Amino acid sequence: MADHGGGADSSGPIRRSPLAEYAEPADADVSHGAPAPSQAEDVARRRREFASVLGEFRRTAVLVPLDESSVPLTADHGGIRWILAFSNESTLARFAIARGEGDREWAYQRVLGARLLDAGVPAVGVPCGVALDSASGDEGVLFPPVAGIVPDSAAVDVRNGEAPQ
After folding, report:
1. String of b and e for 4-38 (b: at least 16 CB within 10 Å)?
2. Fewer beta carbons within 10 Å, N or C terminal of the chain?
3. CA distance 118 to 110
4. How many C-beta atoms lie closer than 10 Å to residue 155's C-beta?
5. How do the pLDDT tens digits run along the chain, 165 residues long?
6. Would you say 145 and 155 are in contact if contact means Cβ atoms under 8 Å apart?
7. Helix locations, 60-120, DSSP H
8. Using CA atoms, how far apart are residues 26 and 38, in angstroms rounded to an integer?
């Protein structure tokens, strides 16, 4: 255990893994554990950016592919069911090709993003979110089933009718 620096028979100081350095931001206020203002500003900026993306999604009609039974196509991952939605026909086509199903006809329905989040997600009956442009790499966006994105009745982070602060 000496090579880990923490053996019971070790008389020297305990060595820290270099990975531990990544867990402690260099500009964090270590004495109080509070993030430095630059981190708080970054979090606030990212929240504003996501709120803008969410607002645009809610105002935009997206394409929702349908299966053989005319049910919206979904994928399950991490205990969440994701309704698949696409910005346009070319992103849907890239998805179809990535699945090896580019040669078949894909039925889809145009749905307003707000309707998908406010009515479609709760109708699923299990924890559900929306995956927009899932075959587009970094351009894809996930709208998870949390308060502020989906109705509280479908949000997984709401307990006893109250969302976290």
Report:
1. eeeeeeeeeeeeeeeeeeeeeeeeeeeeeeeeeee
2. C
3. 15
4. 21
5. 444 444 444 455 544 444 434 444 444 445 556 656 688 899 999 999 999 999 999 999 999 999 999 999 999 999 999 999 999 999 999 999 999 999 999 999 999 999 999 999 999 999 999 999 987 778 899 999 999 999 999 999 987 655 555
6. yes
7. 89-98, 113-115
8. 11
131 burial level (CB within 10 Å; 0-12, 13-18, 19+): buried
Q: Which two tokens stand for residue 134?
A: 């899932």
Which position has the token pair 């039974």?
Answer: 69
Give the count of beta carbons closer than 10 Å to the beta carbon of residue 94. 17
Structure tokens, 11: 């008389």
pTM of the entire predicted model? 0.72
SS3 125: coil
Could you give the count of Cα atoms lying within 13 Å of 106 in the half-sphere of its Cβ? Answer: 25
Q: In this structure, what token pair is assigned to residue 157?
A: 């982070």
The DSSP secondary structure of 62-74, one letter per residue, reads: EEEEB-TTSPBPE
Q: What's the rounded Cα separation, in Å, for the pair 141 and 25?
A: 27
Q: Residue type at 127?
A: P
In whole angstroms, what is the distance from residue 89 CA to residue 103 CA?
Answer: 14
